[in-house]
Amino acid sequence: MQDKIKNINNIEELQALYTATFGKNGTMTARLKEMKNLDNEARASLNKENTMLRELFKNRQIELENQALMEGLAKQRLDASLNPEPENIGTLHPLTKSLSEISAVLESFGYKMWTGPEIEDDWHNFTALNTPDYHPARDMQDSFFLDNGNVMRTQTSAIQIRSMEKEGAPIKMFGVGATYRKEMDATHSPMFHQIEGLYIDKDITMSDLISDVKEFLKKFFEMDEVELRIRPSYFPFTEPSIEIDLKWQGGKWLEIMGAGMVHPNVLRNCNIDPDVYQGFAFGFGWDRLAMLKYGLNDIRQFYDGDIRWLRKTGF
Ligand code: PHE
């Protein structure tokens, strides 16, 4: 019996043997019932056997329970040598990434970053920019007007007015922000972004404009040399006005930005004397430059918030 208990290897079997021994119809129970017929010596020996067997059952039960616990723990043990799940640290949006590249270049040239309100008044978005009442840019078809006569900023040029009003001349700044127009296709979104440089001082000429733009494009696109094409253009707030094209892969010309010498009326509107100061402004689509640099083809994807697209293009 003692050996039998010691050799049992699972709790259920031990339980069954216990019941067969000490249960209602158990062998030991039956023997204990007959104890009164035994002499003293036999009685003492039966008592001893009873106690000893109960002890043995109890010990074996504890052993088996411990064994089961250890086996369970061994199975659950952490294996620190396994590769952890890859950590998802997120990515930068292409606009965030391109802004930090653009501003790093412009700041290295001495331009300071400015922002301004996205809801503008007529003065900053149009009038101070020498944009007459009849100019098509004011047309209801193009601009989002609010009931109170304000407008969703159509161009970051509004920021250059704010900067000149506040700081006067000389000034070297770039304005950054969202702009709004009623247009929508693969390369146009009703909300898009512009960046605009302005440099006003006493001896600023068109050649300063072209050299800054050239150096900027070279650094931003990481090109050894860039080839520009300058075409005459028209903007109410610059005179003369130009359009700057960049020679792209395959010899294709890309229209990259509008620019020009700031119109004397604009300087006057900001209390700057055009007989003392002059300078240039240039403006471009921030989204468009990011699309060109990273090879993206649909501006609307910038604003869809599609996490799969962001992961694919993100940095
Ligand atoms: N504001 C012009 C546009 O939105 C771009 C521009 C900026 C042109 C500065 C000349 C100078 O098209």
Please characterize this protein's 3D structure.
With 315 residues, the protein is α+β, with helices and mostly antiparallel strands. The chain has 2 domains: 2-75; 94-312, BirA Bifunctional Protein, domain 2. Helix content is 42%, strand content 20%. The protein has a 7-stranded mixed β-sheet, with helices on both faces. A two-stranded antiparallel ribbon has the order 2-3. The longest helix has 37 residues, at 40-76. The chain is rod-shaped.
The major β-sheet equals: 7 strands, mixed
Uncertain stretches: none
Helical content stands at 40-55%
User: How much strand?
Assistant: 15-25%
If helices are DSSP runs of H or I spanning 4 or more residues, what is the number of helices?
Answer: 12
Trace the largest sheet across and list its strands.
1-4-5-9-8-7-6
The structural class is alpha+beta
- CATH C-level category of the largest domain: Alpha Beta
The averaged pLDDT comes out at 93
Question: What small molecules does this complex bind?
Answer: phenylalanine
Any chance you could write out the topology, listing elements then pairs?
Layout: H1 2-7, H2 11-22, H3 27-33, H4 40-76, H5 94-108, E1 112-114, E2 119-120, H6 122-125, E3 151-152, H7 157-167, E4 171-180, E5 191-201, H8 206-220, E6 228-235, E7 238-247, E8 253-262, H9 264-269, E9 278-285, H10 286-294, H11 301-304, H12 307-313
Parallel strand pairs: 1-4
Antiparallel strand pairs: 2-3, 4-5, 5-9, 6-7, 7-8, 8-9
Helix pairs in contact: 5-10
Bound molecules: phenylalanine.
